[in-house]
Every structure is written in C-alpha cells, then in structure tokens.
Amino acid sequence: xxxxxxxxxxxxxxEPRELYxxxxxxxxxKLTEAMKEGRxxxxxxxxxxxxxxxxxxxxxxxxxxxxxxAKGEKVSLTVRLEPDPSVPEGVVYVxxxxxxxxxxxxxxxxxxxxxKCFQVVVDGPRAAAFVGKRIGEHVDASVVGxxxxxxxxxxxxxxxxxxxxxxxxxxxxxxLLLSSPPGFHxxxxxxxxxxxxxxxxxxxxxxxxxxxxxx
Length: 215
What we know:
CATH class of the largest domain: Mainly Beta
Largest sheet: 6 strands, mixed, barrel
Shape: elongated
Number of domains: 2
Structural class: mainly beta
Strand content: 35-45%
Distance between the termini: 29 Å
Low-confidence stretches: none
Mean pLDDT: 91
CATH topology of the largest domain: Barwin-like endoglucanases
Oligomer: single chain
Number of strands: 13
CATH architecture of the largest domain: Beta Barrel
Strand order of the largest sheet: 2-6-3-5-4-7
Order of helices and strands: EEHEHEEEHEEHEEEEE
Helix content: under 10%
C-alpha cells in the first residue's frame, strides 16, 4: 500500500506575521504515534484572540523556536490550533513530550505564525486518493484534514529524488534532455543536460507529492 508525504502550500498566506508567545507542554494534550510519524498535525491550544490575530482560516500554524539564531539553528512544529478561551493570550499549549524530546525543556519562548507550507504523511485510503492522479489534477483536501478545499497536484519525487515533470505521460522514469526546472536548474543561459525524471502520474514509487490549496 502506498504512503506519501504530502507537502501542502497555502498560496493565500502572506509574509509571516510572527507573534512571540510562551509555548508550554500540557498533560491534557497527548502526543500520539500518529503525530510522531507525521500522519497527524500536532494539536495545540491557544486563546481565540491569538488565533484571530494569526489570520489562519485553517487554524494551522508554525511554531518556531530558535536554538541558536546566529547559526540558524531552529526547531519548528506545525500545529493545528484549537481555540480555548481559558488559555492566556500569550501562551500556546502543545502535547506533553513534543518540546522536551527536541529541546530538553517543556516550556520555551517561540514565534508563531500562519503556516505557508506544511506536510502530512498519508497512507491507506488517503494515499489511494492520489494514486493514478496527474500533475494539474485535484484531490479533496479532506485527506490532509482541510474539508471544503481541494489540493492541486503540482509535482512530486520518488525515493531516489527523481522529480515528476508535467507533459511526460505515465509514471515511468525517462532520461530527457532538459533546459529548465523541474529536473534541471541551468547555471548558464542555453545550458542543457540529460536528466532522469518521472512522468506526470503518481504511482506507489512516488514518496513525496507537492500540492497547493485551491477552492
């Protein structure tokens, strides 16, 4: 059975409006195996006013903790926010163990902002919805937990990193002479290279599917 890492882009997300908050673990929120494996976004609780300030209609946000800003070292969590008026406005609660496993502390200062991109691992019937679909086709976004929207398939890669390209029918690998992305990024004008790529159709050999949210 196929398993895909589905990368979801939110084209309506503006430049991040970063809010500084205290992020703390809560025993009321359980860290499940599905969250650890990326099959489910981390649950998080926040005050409704904070959720409103983030302008995230899908209530999906990124929490970013800088370990060493000078070196660019950071830890990020993508969470699904649950509005809760009992939570202080400057606090976000996350599942117990989600911070301490990565940072060695159950409470940190962090930035939180609307996620421009996030990923969910899908398997079983949710993955089956992608098999046989082509670049440019759509899948119901409920497979990644966003009902009422669709996912436009924009590309993908297989386990060896070979990218899918539009205009090449089928799922098979081919060696093509390319002059532009996807598959080849020329360093000089007119440069061309023969590269191995995948066709435009999703098969079980694909491991990552790139998508964006549309109506």
